[in-house]
Amino acid sequence: TDLAAAGSASGSASGADAASLAFSTDSYVVNPINFPGGCIGELAINGTVNDLAVAGTEPAAISVAFILEEGLPIAELRDQVAAAERAGVRIVAGDTKVVPQGACDKMYVTTAGVGMVPAGRLTEKPQVGDRILLSGPIADHGMAVMLARGDLAIAAPIESDTQAINHYTSALFNAASPHWLRDATRGGLATVMNELARDTGLGIVLDDAAISVRDLTRGACDMLGIDPLYVANEGTFVAVVSDAEADAALEALHAAGCPEAVSIGRIVEEPASSVVLTTGFGGTRMVDMLVGDPLPRIC
Question: Are 148 and 123 spatial neighbours (Cβ–Cβ below 8 Å)?
Answer without folding.
Answer: no
